[in-house]
Amino acid sequence: MDTTGTLFLPPSGSTISGEVDFQFYFIYAASIFFFAVVTFASLLFVVRYRRRGEPTRSDAPTHNTLLEIVWTAIPTVLIVIVFVMGFRTYLKMHVVPGDAMEIKVTAQKWFWSFDYPEGASAVNELVVPVNQPVKLLMSSQDVIHSFFVPNFRVKMDVLPNRYSVTWFEATQTGEFDLFCTEYCGKGHAEMIGKVKVVSESEYNNWVEAGAGPAEGEGLADYGRRLYVSKACNTCHSIDGSGNVGPSFLQKFGAEEALADGSFITVDENYLRESILNPQAKIVAGYDPVMPTYQGLLKDREVDALIEFIKSLKDGQ
Ligand SMILES: [Cu+2]
């Protein structure tokens, strides 16, 4: 990633950045220029027409046609320029190129998940190929979030019950920050991801590997990977330490106290239900804040996660 950011804008990483930045600085420079002109004129008039003795009464000029034309025409022309530039870029940002690849983006409290046409999926890390238009079809599972990649100058709200669309074409490889930029509750500040722009061949490898366990990888190891890539680790530890959710250490086979006062022995079915329908049984002492992974995890991934949790018999 190059570091040619400017005073107000981070380094640019997409095909649209140049236009956005130019317009920002155009408006900025025009504002500074007119601010200086108006301030200077005000000071000048204050000094020049300050009260000196009794005013002499004469007919004050009421009208100056040339002056009025000038101060109407210049702002009008400027506004038309800004509008035309802005509208053209706006259209470009909203009309997705026909050859764009499509990735499904799901926002929920408090992470991002990405589903690829080839079947791969990821959480909080959007992997895309460089120099290729990428269309994002976005929706939210709960409240309004907003997808923001400053380096790409891409920002779009993500809403429940409807899709929103945005697109970008990354111009260089590297890692770029992804923020949620709509306050969405307690964990909003941690709703941070990465956009990883890679070469086309790297992308193809990633998509292949992401579609399932790697070759020769055991189910529990695959589950360990999912535990991180599906963001379970943001709420569950595996070393017994406390967090938003219970630790997974020595969970399997344990007797679990539920919020309704009953007890349950942790087996595969309980784990499966806890992942896909977390509100069904709430663990005593915890808030029911775990998002449902229904539709976000394939059966095989649920199996792998369960296998991983089963493998956590002693601190490792
Ligand atoms: Cu959010």
Task: Please explain how this structure is put together.
It is a single chain. The protein has helices spanning 17-48, 65-94, 200-210, 219-229, 268-276, 299-311; strands at residues 101-108, 111-115, 121-123, 125-129, 133-140, 145-149, 154-158, 164-169, 174-180, 192-198, 255-257, 263-265. With 316 residues, it is an alpha+beta fold. It folds into two domains: 7-36 and 65-211, Immunoglobulin-like; 219-311, Cytochrome c-like domain (Cytochrome Bc1 Complex, Chain D, domain 2). The strands form three sheets. The protein has a five-stranded mixed β-sheet, with no helix packed on it. The chain has a five-stranded mixed β-sheet with strand order 4-10-9-6-7. A hairpin with a 4-residue loop joins strand 6 (145-149) and strand 7 (154-158). The relative contact order is 0.11. The mean pLDDT is 89. Bound molecules: copper (II) ion. Copper (II) ion binds next to loops.
Give the beta-strand count.
Answer: 12
| Unique bound compounds | copper (II) ion
At the first level of CATH, what is the class of the largest domain? Mainly Beta
Mean pLDDT figure = 89
- Widest sheet: strand ordering: 3-2-1-5-8
Q: What is the strand content?
A: 15-25%
Q: Structural class, please?
A: alpha+beta
The share of residues in helices is: 25-40%
Largest sheet: 5 strands, mixed
Q: If you consult CATH, what is the topology of the largest domain?
A: Immunoglobulin-like
- Could you name the ranges where pLDDT drops below 50 across 5 or more consecutive residues? none
The CATH fourth-level homologous superfamily of the largest domain: Cupredoxins -  blue copper proteins
Number of domains: 2
Alpha carbon gap, first and last residue = 36 Å
Instruction: Round the Cα radius of gyration to an integer and report it.
Output: 28 Å
CATH architecture group name of the largest domain? Sandwich
Helix tally equals 6
Please trace the helix and strand order, writing H or E for each element: HHEEEEEEEEEEHHEEHH
Tell me the overall shape: elongated
